[in-house]
UniProtKB/TrEMBL annotation:
<keyword id="KW-0813">Transport</keyword>
<feature type="domain" description="ABC transmembrane type-1">
    <location>
        <begin position="62"/>
        <end position="272"/>
    </location>
</feature>
<keyword id="KW-0472">Membrane</keyword>
<dbReference type="InterPro" id="IPR000515">
    <property type="entry name" value="MetI-like"/>
</dbReference>
<keyword id="KW-0812">Transmembrane</keyword>
<dbReference type="Pfam" id="PF00528">
    <property type="entry name" value="BPD_transp_1"/>
</dbReference>
<keyword id="KW-1003">Cell membrane</keyword>
<dbReference type="InterPro" id="IPR051393">
    <property type="entry name" value="ABC_transporter_permease"/>
</dbReference>
<protein>
    <submittedName>
        <fullName>ABC transporter</fullName>
    </submittedName>
</protein>
<feature type="transmembrane region" description="Helical">
    <location>
        <begin position="204"/>
        <end position="225"/>
    </location>
</feature>
<keyword id="KW-1133">Transmembrane helix</keyword>
<feature type="transmembrane region" description="Helical">
    <location>
        <begin position="251"/>
        <end position="273"/>
    </location>
</feature>
<feature type="transmembrane region" description="Helical">
    <location>
        <begin position="63"/>
        <end position="87"/>
    </location>
</feature>
<comment type="similarity">
    <text>Belongs to the binding-protein-dependent transport system permease family.</text>
</comment>
<dbReference type="InterPro" id="IPR035906">
    <property type="entry name" value="MetI-like_sf"/>
</dbReference>
<dbReference type="GO" id="GO:0055085">
    <property type="term" value="P:transmembrane transport"/>
</dbReference>
<dbReference type="GO" id="GO:0005886">
    <property type="term" value="C:plasma membrane"/>
</dbReference>
C-alpha cells in the first residue's frame, strides 16, 4: 500500500484556509482602517501602525511577552522532563500519582486563573495568613510579584501537558540501551544524561515550540489575575491588543497589534525550528508500508 494521496489533505487544507488564513487576511486589512465596531471601517493607511509603534506601552508589552515566555520555557522544561521520565517508569502507585498530577490539565485556563486569584488574594488568601513568607501579602502589588504569579500559575497548569509529551517519548526509548549501560557500569544519573535526555531531543523541541507559541499568546491568565497591572507592568502584547480593541473600541489598532503578535510568534517558532533542527527530524517509521 502506498502513501495517502493529495486528496486526503484537502479537508484539512480547506479547514485551515477557512478558519486560519481567511481571518488572518481580514485582520490584516482591518489594521489599515479605523473602526469602532459600529458603521463601516474607514481606510486610514498606516495611521494605526504609526500610533501603535509610537506607544511605549506597546513596545514594553513585547518585552514582557518575551519575558513571560522565557520564564515558562526555563521553568516548565526541566520540571516536565524530570516528571515525564519518572512517570514513564514502573514505580509503585505511579499511575495514581500521575492521574492526580494531571488534574490541572483538565481545567480551563479561566477556571485555573479564578482559583489562584482567590488563593493568592492579598485580603483573605494564603499570603495574608503567611506574612512571614509573603510580606504584606500583596503579590499583585509589584511587577516582580505579579510576573512571578503569572509564571507560577502557568507552570502549575501546563507542566502536566508537557510531562505527558516527555512521558510518551521516554517510554519509547529502547530498553536495550539501558541494559548495555548497566553492563558498562553507568548509574542512573549517567543513564539519564547520556541516554534518556538525548533520546528526548525531538520531544523537547516539540514541547519548546508549543511553550513559545502558548507564552506569546497568553491572555486569560493576565486578564483575570492582574488585568495588566500594577499599572502596565504585566500588560503583555495579547492583553494590550484586548485593551485597544475591546476596551478602547479601536479595532483597527487592535488588529495591527494582533498581526504583530502573529508575526512575532511565527518568527520565534521558525527560529526555534531552524536552530534546533526540527525541520530535519525524520521518523524511523515514515509513511505507510
Amino acid at each position: 500500500m502506498g502513501r495517502p494521496g493529495f486528496l486526503w489533505a484537502i479537508p484539512a487544507t480547506l479547514f485551515f484556509l477557512l478558519f486560519a488564513i481567511t481571518p488572518l487576511i481580514m485582520v490584516a486589512g482591518l489594521s489599515f482602517t479605523s473602526w469602532s465596531g459600529l458603521g463601516s471601517p474607514r481606510f486610514v493607511g498606516l495611521d494605526n501602525w504609526t500610533r501603535v509603534f509610537a506607544d511605549p506601552v506597546m513596545i514594553n508589552s513585547v518585552w514582557l511577552s518575551l519575558l513571560v515566555t522565557f520564564l515558562g520555557v526555563a521553568i516548565q522544561t526541566p520540571l516536565s522532563v524530570l516528571l515525564g521520565v519518572w512517570a514513564a517508569g514502573q514505580q509503585r502507585n505511579r499511575a495514581v500519582l500521575s492521574a492526580i498530577y494531571f488534574i490541572p490539565l483538565l481545567l480551563s485556563t479561566t477556571a485555573v486563573s479564578v482559583l489562584w486569584r482567590a488563593v493568592l488574594d492579598p485580603n483573605f488568601g494564603v499570603p495574608s495568613r503567611v506574612t512571614w513568607l509573603f510580606g504584606d501579602g500583596n503579590l499583585f502589588g509589584s511587577q516582580a510579584g505579579a510576573i512571578g504569579v503569572l509564571a507560577f500559575v502557568s507552570t502549575w497548569q501546563f507542566t502536566p501537558f508537557h510531562t505527558l509529551i516527555h512521558q510518551g517519548a521516554a517510554r519509547a526509548v529502547p530498553r536495550v540501551l539501558y541494559e548495555a549501560a548497566e553492563i558498562d557500569g553507568a548509574g542512573r544519573v549517567r543513564q539519564f544524561f547520556h541516554i534518556t535526555l538525548p533520546q528526548l531531543r525531538n520531544s523537547l523541541i516539540t514541547s519548546t515550540i508549543l511553550m513559545v507559541v502558548g507564552g506569546l499568546t497568553t491572555f486569560e491568565t493576565v486578564l483575570i489575575l492582574t488585568q495588566g497591572g500594577p499599572g502596565t507592568d504585566t500588560t503583555i502584547t495579547a492583553y494590550y491588543m484586548y485593551q485597544k480593541a475591546f476596551k478602547g473600541f479601536d479595532f483597527g489598532a487592535g488588529a495591527a497589534v494582533a498581526l504583530v503578535l502573529v508575526v512575532a510568534a511565527t518568527l520565534v517558532s521558525l527560529i526555534v525550528v531552524r536552530v534546533s533542527g526540527y525541520d530535519r527530524m525524520r521518523s524511523e517509521m515514515e509513511g505507510v508500508s
